[in-house]
């Protein structure tokens, strides 16, 4: 049974019902409907911490989805899973692929910045001040892009930019 048919909570059930109605009303191909179903099931599995299942669904959605904008969100979610698993290099690959398809994705810029900032902190712990500065400068550039796209978001990043004199 597909995950979308066994949602247990109210919000997931409501989303599933609305999505199913939209898929019937909006003119879409069978392939597009199938891609969306895999994407939706991937999001549901991801929300439950079932990352392997989520990745399987996302990869299947990527196989079917042809729209670059829709693919950007699938790639972004794959990046989120890799970030959660501590696989930062892989996560960055997926975030950058998402941004290639959709350069107006502030959350991808933010997540790239978070990883760069984390690497800057790791460099400080290893007493590598030059590398830490480079990582922090990269984080600043990505946060600036995220903030430009979503000015009301990322308040902590805005404060960090101000405190460190990078804004």
TrEMBL record:
Q: Does the keyword Thylakoid apply?
A: yes
GO process terms (BP) = photosynthesis
This protein's major location comes to: plastid
Please give, as recorded in its UniProt entry, the membrane topology of this protein: Peripheral membrane protein
Question: Which ranges does the UniProt record give for the TPR repeats?
Answer: 35-68, 35-68, 72-105, 72-105, 120-153
Q: Which keywords appear in this protein's UniProt record, sorted alphabetically?
A: Chloroplast, Membrane, Photosynthesis, Plastid, Repeat, Thylakoid, TPR repeat
Where can this protein be found? Plastid membrane; Plastid, Chloroplast thylakoid membrane
A cellular-component GO term for this protein: chloroplast thylakoid membrane
Q: Keyword Hydrolase on this protein?
A: no
| Protein name (database record) | Photosystem I assembly protein Ycf3
Organism per entry? Nitellopsis obtusa
């Amino acid at each position: 049974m597909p995950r979308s048919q066994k949602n247990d909570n109210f919000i997931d059930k409501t989303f599933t019902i609305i999505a199913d109605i939209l898929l019937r009303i909006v003119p879409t191909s069978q392939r597009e409907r199938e891609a969306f179903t895999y994407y939706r099931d991937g999001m549901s599995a991801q929300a439950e911490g079932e990352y392997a299942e989520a990745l399987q669904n996302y990869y299947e959605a990527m196989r079917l989805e042809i729209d670059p904008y829709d693919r950007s969100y699938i790639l972004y979610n794959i990046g989120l899973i890799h970030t959660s698993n501590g696989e930062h290099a892989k996560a960055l690959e997926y975030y950058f692929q998402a941004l290639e398809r959709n350069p107006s994705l502030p959350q991808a810029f933010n997540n790239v910045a978070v990883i760069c900032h984390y690497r800057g902190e790791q460099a400080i712990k290893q007493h590598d001040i030059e590398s830490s500065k480079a990582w922090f400068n990269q984080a600043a550039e990505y946060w600036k892009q995220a903030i430009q796209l979503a000015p009301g978001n990322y308040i902590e990043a805005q404060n960090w930019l101000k405190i460190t004199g990078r804004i």
